[in-house]
Amino acid sequence: MEQAFGLSVIDIGNMVSAFLLPLTRISSFFLAAPVFGAQLVPSRIKLILSVVVTAVIFPVLPEMPAVDNLSPATMTLIAQQILIGLGMAFILQMLMQVFVMAGQIAAMQIGLGFASMMDPVNGVSVTVISQFHLMLITLLYVSMNGHLATLQIFIESFIAIPVGAELGADFFWKLASWMSWCLGAALLISLPAVTALLLVNGALGIVSRAAPQLNIFSIGFPMMVLLGLIILWASMMGVMPQFQRFSEEALLMMRQLQ
């Protein structure tokens, strides 16, 4: 067997396989996680970041299982690493989507559901209020060093879920339950605006019944938009505590997922 720097070809192949397994988990996380996986970030930057992080933490990672290249067992391990990376990134994405869904709900109640724009981060069409929420939450996420905290917890997953560990049904059940929690959180955020606008709609309905000669539709829509924007402005004071609470829940879920 040919030698290179005192290593055989088999030894070099095993070292490359041991490096590629954690690289698969890290790259899948960076491709789907908020901020890191945004469409504004070039794919080359994501790849370089994945390789650099893998090279930095590789010496302190637990010993990788010995696998045969291109064997079914290796393909299974790679699929597991992709699922783990995407699962943790999914938790963070749903944290961001909580505020996007809250903006969608509020926009539909205000009457601005038709005012949509293209989200340059995710590449989808969202309402203006949802885009404003997403920009605000992304700035809070970065300013609070949330990207560093999530990266630390993700790296710790190599100890809690080492490469080669089997993923049970509990892993997927926690991800499914996290989706229901996010929907409830979005409703909780939009509840003040929805309740206030419901009262305004009720008042306009009473006025239209009391004075049918008034064209309530000509003044109702501008009033709803104006009051809705005022309510959203007043509710901005509670965004920071809500985001801090929900981000703590997301980080806790990432740890429980391990």
**Uncertain runs with pLDDT below 50, 5 residues or more?**
none
Helix content: over 70%
Total domain units: 1
Oligomer: single chain
Radius of gyration: 24 Å
Q: Provide a count of the helices.
A: 8
| Average predicted local confidence, pLDDT | 78
Q: What is the makeup of the main sheet?
A: 2 strands, antiparallel
Account of the protein in words:
- With 258 residues, the protein is mainly alpha-helical.
- The protein has one domain.
- It has eight helices and four strands.
- The two termini are 41 Å apart.
Mind sketching the topology for me?
Layout: E1 3-4, E2 7-8, H1 9-32, H2 43-57, H3 72-110, E3 116-118, E4 125-127, H4 128-143, H5 146-160, H6 169-210, H7 216-235, H8 239-257
Antiparallel strand pairs: 1-2, 3-4
Task: Describe this structure in a few short sentences.
This protein is mostly helical and 258 residues long.
What labels describe this entry?
two-stranded antiparallel sheet; single chain; 258 residues; two-stranded antiparallel ribbon; mainly alpha
